[in-house]
Amino acid sequence: MMRKVIFYNFFPTKAEEEAAKARNSVHHVTPLYVVEIRDNRQPPPRLDDAWIEKVVDLNSISTGKLYLSHHETFDHVFQHWTVEQATHIVAGNRMHVMIMDVTDGNGPMSYHGENVFFEKGPHCDSYALGCKDLFEKHVLHLGEEIGLRWSKELGLFQFQIIKYQGENDRSGVGNICLKI
To answer: What's the domain of life for this entry (predicted)?
Structure first.
């Protein structure tokens, strides 16, 4: 079994050493990219059907982003992506995506554009799913519990509202699908 990890450069090149010396500073260890390594540990339970559970909080609503931890991202998302896709995100780049809201019984509603993306988060061990357009349409509310998983078969993120805030006002279980 292969798994993805971040490769760190602990040893600077000669050029990096000289540049640091010229700036009168030290070389800082920075993640370069994602690599796949053979995982000889006992295989974890199948994560294909595992959901990342999140509660929509004020930070998510104010920034228009859902934040995932390093563990959640690498074990539930990056394990299904190519090394190139994961490296693109880890390097600090943004990947624009499309979100498909299939909550409404009248048909799916898609969200795409500048406000819909996946990127590295504000902390070195977090990642963010930008879904401001979705929040602006009041699909997700403060305190609601949602589930997120990557569907290998469909090649998309699936969001599921696990528990609505104010169950009396809304009924049924909603699905929101995000496609890369």
So the answer is: Eukaryota
The strand pair at 156-163 and 145-151 is best described as antiparallel
User: Is 135 among the domain residues?
Assistant: yes
In a domain, 120, yes or no: yes
- Span 125-155, pLDDT tens digits: 899 998 888 777 766 778 888 878 777 776 6
And the tokens for 96? 């624009």
Of the candidates 100, 85, 67, which has an alpha carbon nearest to the alpha carbon of residue 179? 100
Based on the structure, what is the number of domains in the chain? 1
Report the CATH number that the domain containing residue 157 is assigned in CATH: 2.40.330.10
- The dihedrals phi and psi of 146, each to the nearest 5 degrees, come to -125, 155
Say how many Å lie between the first and final Cα of the chain, rounded.
24
Q: What is the value of pTM for the model shown?
A: 0.73
Which residue type is seen at 113?
Answer: G
